[in-house]
Amino acid sequence: EAQLVESGGGLVQAGESLRLSCVASGFTFEDAAIGWFRQAPGMEREGVACISPDNGLTRYADSVKGRFTISSDNAKNTVYLQMNSLKPEDTAVYYCAAGENVGVVVATTTAFGPNLYDHWGQGTQVTVSS
Fold it and tell me: What's the rounded Cα separation, in Å, for the pair 69 and 46?
């Protein structure tokens, strides 16, 4: 059974940093697309960053480019999201998601299509105070 377990959320002040972790199991990690999504109250879920663990290719939403970095440790089946220079508008529940056997989509503009992702974590809250 596929499973994604997120950790690392919390409450920080604007300008500070957090690192989220997502530990994956139950599917072939290297062949997947692994993404981070977020959802703020009253807002639609949006893609933040995604990675192909096979080749390290990444994609970011414009709102986080230059501030967030996604990376993977294939030996640990873990994906990280390093979030720097956090802003109050980054406040949301952050979800890790995996699309099996679709790692190639990270190279395309459809990489954040939620229908591509088969498995979702339970979410971790990130709150940024001003």
Answer: 16
pLDDT digits (tens, 9 = 90+) for 14-38: 999 999 999 999 999 999 999 999 9
Tokens 């952050």 -> residue: 94
CA atoms within 13 A on the CB side of 93: 13
Q: What residue ranges in the chain does DSSP mark as E strands?
A: 3-7, 10-13, 18-25, 33-39, 46-51, 58-60, 68-73, 78-83, 92-99, 119-120, 124-129
Alpha carbon distance 84, 87 (integer Å): 9
Q: What is the rounded distance in angstroms from the CA atom of residue 126 to the CA atom of residue 94?
A: 7
Distance, C-alpha 78 to centroid of its chain: 11
Q: How many CB atoms lie within 10 A of CB 82?
A: 15
